[in-house]
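Annotated sample (chain length 393).
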Amino acid sequence: MKPLLLLLLSCCLLACQPDAERPGTQQAEAELQTGAEQLQQYLPLLQGKRVGVLVNQTSLVGGQHLVDVLLAHKVNIVSIFAPEHGFRGDYDAGASVKNSTDSKTGLPLLSLYGASKKPSARQMQELDIVIFDIQDVGVRYYTYISSMHYMMEAAAEHNVAMLVLDRPNPNGAYVDGPVLDSAFQSFVGMHPIPLLHGMTVAELAQMIKGEHWIANADKLQLHVVPLSGYQRSQPYSLPVKPSPNLPNDQAIALYPSLGFFEATPLSIGRGTEFPFQVIGYNKFGPSGFQFMPVSTPGAALTPPLMDKVLLGEDLRQAKAQGLNLQYLLRWYALFKQHDEVFFTSAAFMDKLAGTDQLRQQIEQGQTEQQIRASWQSALQQFKQQRQPYLLYP
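Output written by the structure step:
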């Protein structure tokens, strides 16, 4: 057969292939492997060791939970540590998680979001190594990275090794927002990083150790299993919702922008089927869109403005990329027009922002462009500072 005819035939066959078989389409996505899925990389570290795991409902290896996979490989799991929202991810935001026993495995469930956010000396003395494998969303005030911080610190104090199994950051393409001022450090912001830091949990763990953001950082035996086939800016749709009120990609993309509304009297959809995808208030709103929060699983603790008809914005189809300050600025102006207090919890707003400057800039009437300009120097410095810890292009 002549070369030209062969070329035409092969092009025709390629065009007829389904997308999953074409180079560069879904096949490329299938090549992505989380740290947990690369068992050969870390099972040798666990042999003969007493193992603790800091995990939740996102800690999957294929369709199986990491705990079940490790037990099937005869790993000696001593205890399971649970972050905010619990081991199964069904506790409300802010709800205290209690110590208990896992009904399936009989293993002790130890809370890191209750009376204490840091493991006790007794709990750590029973371990040789602890694994962190939780899906984060790349926003500083999302508390899983704070639980990782305290576990790293406890591991360093008690000569326990730490293994971080990496997962993609769905907001990894963005580095934006104010860098945290240490005067405003809290459990919703523990590190001098921007609101959107653009790092995975393994990269961040390396930075926490390398920059000595924990006590005894040099003593910590930190191991990480990086992602395979991952690039920082590639889209990643989470297979499991990371917490009750982040049910889909849109909510996760809007979370950096709407999280600030937790310091105001407005609703951002807790108690609806679309949390973190709407904004509303019972007295006035910028459009005719209406919704009503009610008590629901994941928002049972009296969501803001429960059982009231709210007027507001429907953002379910809005373009959501990174941090958008227009929502805050628009609603602040509306509240000022109606002579109502917008930042009803100013101290909490400052903790979420990691600074009091953002709130003051909004109250002073600064534009988004002016506010963003004030971040740029610190953002550039952070990008340089994080460079040694990055694992992906």
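Annotation: The first helix runs from residue 3 to 16.
Annotation: The two ends are 43 Å apart (CA to CA).
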